[in-house]
Each structure stands twice: as C-alpha cells, then as structure tokens.
Amino acid sequence: MGKGYYISKHLATAAMVLAAIALVTIIALSVVYNREKSKNAAKFSKATTLPVFPTPKTSNEPWDKYRLPDTLSPQYYNVTLWPRLVKNANGMYIFTGISGVMFTCEKKTDLILIHSNKLNLTVFKGHHAKLTGLSGVTAPAIKTTWFQSETQYLVIQLEGKLKPGKDYWLYTEFTGELADDLEGFYRSEYMENGEKKIIAITQMQATYARKAFPCFDEPGMKAVFHITLIHDRGTTALSNSQEIKTENVIIDGMAITRTIFGPTKRMSTYLIAFVVSDFTYIDAKDKKGVLVRIWARKKAIEDRQGDYALNITQPILEFFEKYYNTSYPLSKSDQIALPDFNSGAMENWGLVAYRETALLYDPRTSANGNKQRIVTVVSHELAHMWFGNLVTVKWWNDLWLNEGFASYVEYLGADYAEPTWNMKDQTILYDLQSAFAVDSLTSSHPLSRKEEEVNTPSEISEMFNTISYSKGAAVLKMLSEFLTESVFAKGLSNYLKQFAFGSSVHSDLWEYLQKAVDQTPGIKLPYSVHEIMNRWILQMGFPVVTIDTRTGNVSQKHFLLEPEAVVDRKSEFNYEWFVPIKWMKKGQVQDQLWLLQKSAIHKPMKVSKNEWVLANLHVSGYFRVNYDLGNWERLLSQLESNHQVIPVVNRAQILDDAFNLARASIINITLALRTTKYLLHEREYIPWEAALRNLNYFFQLFDRSEVYGAMQAYLKKQVKPLFEYFGTISSNWTTVPSGHTDQFTQIIALSLACSTGVEGCRELTRSWFKKWMQNPPNNAIHPNLRSTVYCNAIAAGGAEEWNFGWQMFQKATVAAEAVKLRSALACTKVPWLLNRYLEYTMNPEKIRKQDATSTIGYIASNIIGQPLAWDFVRANWDYFFKLYGTGSFIFSGLIRDVTYRFCTPFELSQLKRFQKDNAETGFGSGTQALQQAIEKTTAKIKWLEGNKEPVLQWFLSESA
Ligand code: BES
Ligand code: ZN
C-alpha cells in the first residue's frame, strides 16, 4: 500500500525538470498526433503544442491554487476513448479521446478551470475547447485558453460571464500517451504462450483521472459518466457500469469494435476505470441478481485461479449489504487481476482492480497466507463500494476515514466469508501494532488533517500511510466496541442513507453515530462521540495507561519511543485522551471503566497479592498498558503456569507492550525478555507472531554484535518444542495442520528453527529444495512452506541455487509463486549475486516496475544485502525519483526498508547526509519515512548504550 509524502520547497527544481519533460512529451505527442490523424476519423483532428506557464510562488490567481473554485459543478460527462495497443510510426503507444462535460454555473464567473494533465488538446479556432450554452443560453466566447502545468489545469478565460443556475457544455478532443507508468490510462504487458500481450488499464486515485480526460478531478465533484470505448476486434472493453451495446464498426477505414456503457451512478472521478484486454472471466449471479465476474489472463482463468475470489465475493457482498443495511448500489460487480498494478488493489466502483496476488489463488501453488490476503483485500475493496464510493469524503484530508474504515471492516467481511480463520483477532497484529510503531514517534501526525493543509498531488499521496490505514482502523474498532457493534452499524447505515451519492466530512459520521447512541436506551457515554473521538483523531500519538494495583491509581501519558524526545506539535487536548478500559481481574471480566483525566483512583483496580489485573481486554482500545512491578510479576507467573486464562490476543499484547515499554525505557528490558519465557508452552499464532516481530527487531539490532550468539542459543531453546510439536502432528513435515492459523504457526516454527539452527531443520529444507532442483516440473514442497524453504536453501547455497530460483521465477505462471521466489532470491549471502539482483530491479524486463521497490526492500532485510541496498538507493535516488514521479507513493516503503536496521552513530550520520545531499531532488512520499528513520535510529543508539549489556547477560544466563 502507498505510504505518504508531501511536496517540499526543494522540489521546485525537480518540478521544473518534470515540466520540461512534460513539454517534450507534449511536443512528441503532437508529432505523433499529426501522424495519427491521417489514419483516424475526422473527429480526432488537429492538435498543436500547448503553451505551458510555470506557477509563480506568490500568485493569488485562481489557476495557481490547487483546489477548484466553487463556481461550477459538473453534472455529467460523455467520454469516448480509443487506446491503440500497437505502436504507432513513432514507436509510441497512444490513446485518443473526445469528451464533453455538462456543468452548472453556481456563481457568476468568466473563468473555467478543469483538470487536465499530459493531454494534448486539439485546438479549435485558436482555443483548446469548445463551449456551448444549453437550453437556449448563449455561452460567452472564449477569450484565451492555456495549460497551467503546476496545478494541472486547462484554463479557459471567457469574454463574458457564465450565468448562475444555467448549464453549459464544454467539449474537448485530445491525445495522450498510453505509457507503462501505472498512472491514469496506461498500458501493461505480459507474456502468454510465448507471445507478448498488451492491455490498456487505469488507475485514477488520487489525481490521475485528469491524465485520461479533462475533468473536475476532486472527490466531492461527483457526476454521471457516459463512457464509450473503441477497441480492437477480439478484445473486450470494461468500465464501471454494464456494457449496453457492443458493435463492430468501421472508423476511418479501420475495422474495430465500439462498446457503449450505461450511465454510471453519480460518482467521483477517482473511481472511474476502463480496461481493454483479451482477458476472460468466470461469473455468477448473486441472490438479488447482481452479476459478479472475475476477470484475468486466459491461462489464469483456465487454471481456475479465479474460483476462490468468485466464491468469496458473494458472501462478502451479502455481509456488507446486511452490515450497512443498504443494497449493493450497482447492477454488476467486476473484479479484475492485472499483471502490472501499483497498489494492492483499487476500489473502482463496479470494476475493482487487483494485483494478481491479491485476487488469484491456485491451491497447488498458493499458500494459505496468499488465500488470506485475497479474502482480506477483496473484503476491503468491496467495503469501499459503500463506504468511499456511495458516500465519499469531500476532500483528501479525510482519507483516513475512507481507508481506516475499510481497513477495519475488511476483517468483519473476511470473517463472514471464512468464519473459522480467526480473522477479527488478527487486526491487532496488522493494524493496531503496526500503527503503534509509527505513532509513538514525535514525527507522527494526527489522523485528521485540516482541509487547507492538503493540496498538491504529493500532499494527497502522502495521506495513504500507516496512520490513515492502521490507526484509522484501530480507533474505529475501539469506537465500534465502546458503542457496541449494533449501535455503530445503526448510525452508519443512517449516515450512508443520508449522504448516498454525495460526499461528507468526518464530523457527519460522528453526528449520525451520536444520534444512534441517543436513540438507544441503556448506552451511556461520559462525553459525546465528537468529544471522545476528537481526542483520538485531532492529536497524534496514543497513551500508555499505567495501573498501580497497590493503590488502584490509573494514569495516562503520551507514549513516546524516545523518552526524552521533544514534541513540537501542540495539541489542544494536551496529549490526554478519554480512554475506554475493558479489563479483567484474575481471569474474571469486570465492568468497563473510562479514564477521563490524567490520573484517577479506580478502587476496583486495587487488588490483593494473589490477584492480577489485565487491562485493555481483547485489545479493543488503542493504547498500551503498564503496571506496577508486582502485577507484572503475577501476570508473568500466570503466563508460565496456565497461559490460557489470558485471552490469546492479550498474550500478544503483553509481549508487544512489554517490549515497547522497554524500548521506551519505561520498564526494564529483562522484564520484557521474560515475557518470552512462556513461549515454550505457546501454540497459538497471534502471540508467536507478536513475539517474532519483537525478536526480529532484536535480531536486526544485535546480529552484528556479540549478543547474537547468546540470543540465538536462547531462541533455539524456546522454539525447539514448537518445531518438534509440528514435526509430530504433521507426520514429520509431510502434511500441514488443518487449522488455518495453526498453519501460520507451523511456518513460524520452521523458519525460526532453521534460523536459530535447531537440529534437523536446515537439513530438511535443503533436501526438499535439492529434490526440486533435480526434478523441476515436480515441486513437492507444500505451498505454505515454500517461502521459508526457498529462502533457507538459497541462503545456504551459491550461484547454482540462485540461478535455479531465478529460472523458476521467470517461468512462474502463478503470481503468488513468483513473489515467493522473488523474495527468496534476496536471501543469498553472496554479495555479487545480491548486487546483480539489485541491478535487475532497474530492468522492467527482469523485475516488473510494480515489484522493483519491494525487491530492494527484501534485499535490505538480509544482513549482507542491507548495506548494498542502501548504497544502491543512495546512488540512484535521482533516477528513482524521476522514474516514478514526484506523486508516487512508493518512496516511503523504500526508505523504511533500506534503513530498517540502522542503529549506530555512523549510520545516523549517513542518513543525515543522505537527507542533505538530496534536498534538491526531495523525497516525495519518503519525506516522512526519512524523518521517522532518523528518529528511530537516534532512539536505538541511545537505548543500546544502556541496554546492550543487560540484554547480553540475560541471554547468556537463560541459554546456559
Ligand atoms: N484505495 C486504495 C488503493 C490506493 C492506494 C490507491 C494508494 C492510490 C494510492 C485501496 O482501497 C487500498 O487500500 N488498497 C490496499 C489494499 C488493502 C487491502 C489495504 C493496497 O493497495 O495495498
Ligand atoms: Zn482502501
């Protein structure tokens, strides 16, 4: 998923370079176009180069503002697009288009601003558009038109004023490049039966619809779209609504097909989608007659890789219809798997697009983790069909509500489709704990931004980050739990009804939830939904709640990973929260409490010496918990004597809280390490995964120091029983357990046992891989275990194993298998292989562009690969930045991954140097990640000073 970025002033130079590139592109396109026009219908006629004006910094002109004025509102569009899937005489792929938009004048104006980017607009009588008045109104003549590159507008100045309440029709013709840039209307290539295939697809969110046709490209500017696609015979065209007419026609002597789609519902531009491909599909009708289709490459559909997605789509739609108490708003639901896709998936209304790994499942080669990914992504995107698409946030500053909401309810939908998978509990790993990790830094930010703080495409992209997704999900889950799920769902359904086909802001949702609370007898809140929630969304961070069971005192404090860090950002709430605390006393569930001030006595929390208190029961709240030492001791002994008295997710919470409290120097590190002792008896996935993440962090911190040996020895001791347990229940690793999450635990057992050197593990994985190498068509390794086996074998081997893995990667026809190999290839310990692999990421023939940065990330997680990847990224920063464009969301992940291991003063100085050296180019969506990396490295250096020795001593004593 995309993590955020914002445009810095240092981007000015880059922006100018890009403007120059845009100009060259436009000139090139006009040449292309002039060639094209001779072949095409007269409609797609003449174009010339547009004048491009840079934006002066201090300008107050409306065309220099990133937000559209409120003078015009679009009603409907007629858009016809014609992508060419063969190169033209100039060796370019292009599309041509014609588009009209009917808009109503809301306020008197002599100016039309409409988004348009990288489109080469045809000139009619000296202007780049035609304007007509409707219903007998005469439109003023166009005075002048130009293209404002920075704000991406076509600017149309008129001789006279448009009249309020009157409707007008604005018409344009244009050409664009069908580039392989994964943005707007773009092309993707793949091989099938040795033949290169090309498809045309779209990705409009957040600001790329303007690259496909001129439009009022803001989420609040909803309209109805009438779309027509012209495409080669033998290909299929898809869009948001159902095709109503497909006919073979001759245009300008070319025998082609025209597909006309029915009008869409009133919707936002960022949800528009078109696809032209020769894909096939499988389909089904749901109970209410909604047509559900899964589209993919022919081979993938023939291999039945779409079956799982088709099977789960119906129950998920059914679940959300019930949950939202609103019917699915459209007559069809297409979902398509694309070979090149920048994000994991995109919720285009009625035509959801996915990476292949997020939609296609092949039981013979995909792991159960791949299957889980599919059910959660499908559930997430289908949740958006209502929340996000039917009701849309007015502006991107509220993106957290859209993405946080879908990230929360995706678990509910997935749980309905796969009720035995324990999906709801997994939120604490994938949302709550991931959000804590970034929200405990001073460089974090509040969930909700002010509307005026988010303007440029770069600032918008920056909103797609862990805070919006994961913290958003965690605080909404907390809200749903303290309101109760039924009150939450009732308020939600009224909110959807009120704002259907329109847009809203987050306080509208609070208002409707409050109404639901007011209508429900028996539910008591200490404050209104607004007052409680504002504290969670308008200030960054979260509290650590400390319970002193000797006195019953409960207090809260802003949790910061670096205890001495200075928080520059002011909060109107003083970094205090209204905290709902569910809790238990020695296994008995107690009444929920609210902590409404800095500190208060809660008598029931004062307990006797043989009792313990556990707060944040079922981890429904977005906060960490600390106790007095006596209570910690009693919790530890409960874990060791009978851990099952403590709910599974709270066992994970105890581990994660303890480690993070220790990292923040709030408790002693040995206390945190002691929470791992009970793992000898633990068989559940969620606590093991939480432990693994914290231990991995330790691995990365210590694997270059003398602590490593002692730590390895301790972990080997801890994981051995788990390894033996799974060996026994899986008849010596020949089967996998039946429980879904047990299968995950089995993978943890194998990977941790191999990495710590448990006897027999590495031999096993090596022999499985060897067998495969001897007879490649027959891969007997269970799909669940493949990632671990491939990685271990390639790490232990040399060029022969690597080259074999590479060959298998290139041959893979199932995307999930290709990912396993691609990540395992990064496990080699041979530097030249790693360097060559890094070079491959620059070659889209070898590593797809969509996969380049994650591959670098895999290499960076390898102890040998990390410095190589860091050097590679530093050396090529400029190149990446230009390749992906300043608006891309990939930079934050890239910076996070290559700096993840940093913990020395030297590494910190390198980071700061990097920041300085590239100030001119800028960091786009990586700006925040770089800030976070500096903060995390600083914290680690300090922490290591006081903690390395006790950690070493503890591991030595425990592994003896
Ligand atoms: N709307 C996003 C896709 C998106 C992300 C568009 C970033 C533009 C920039 C979509 O709903 C989404 O969140 N996809 C996730 C998967 C999801 C299961 C968390 C993704 O792409 O990772
Ligand atoms: Zn989403």
Automatic annotation (TrEMBL):
Domain Aminopeptidase N-like N-terminal positions: 74-271
Domain Peptidase M1 membrane alanine aminopeptidase, residue spans: 308-536
GO cellular component, one term: plasma membrane
Cofactor(s) of this protein: Zn(2+)
Site (Transition state stabilizer): 469
Record: active site: 381
The entry's keywords: Aminopeptidase, Cell membrane, Disulfide bond, Glycoprotein, Hydrolase, Membrane, Metal-binding, Metalloprotease, Protease, Signal-anchor, Transmembrane, Transmembrane helix, Zinc
A Gene Ontology biological process term: peptide catabolic process
Classification via InterPro entries: Aminopeptidase_N-like_N, Aminopeptidase_N-like_N_sf, ERAP1-like_C_dom, M1_APN-typ, Peptidase_M1, Peptidase_M1_aminopeptidases, Peptidase_M1_dom, Peptidase_M4/M1_CTD_sf
Domain named ERAP1-like C-terminal: residues: 612-937
Location in the cell: Cell membrane
EC number: 3.4.11.-
Top-level division of the source organism's lineage: Eukaryota
GO molecular function, one term: metalloaminopeptidase activity
Residues noted as binding Zn(2+) in the record, renumbered to the chain: 380, 384, 403
Topology of this chain in the membrane: Single-pass type II membrane protein
Transmembrane segment boundaries: 12-33
Cofactor note: Binds 1 zinc ion per subunit.
Chief localization: membrane
Subunit and partners: Homodimer.
Family (UniProt): Belongs to the peptidase M1 family.
Full protein name: Aminopeptidase
Organism: Cyprinus carpio (Common carp)
Classification lineage: Eukaryota, Metazoa, Chordata, Craniata, Vertebrata
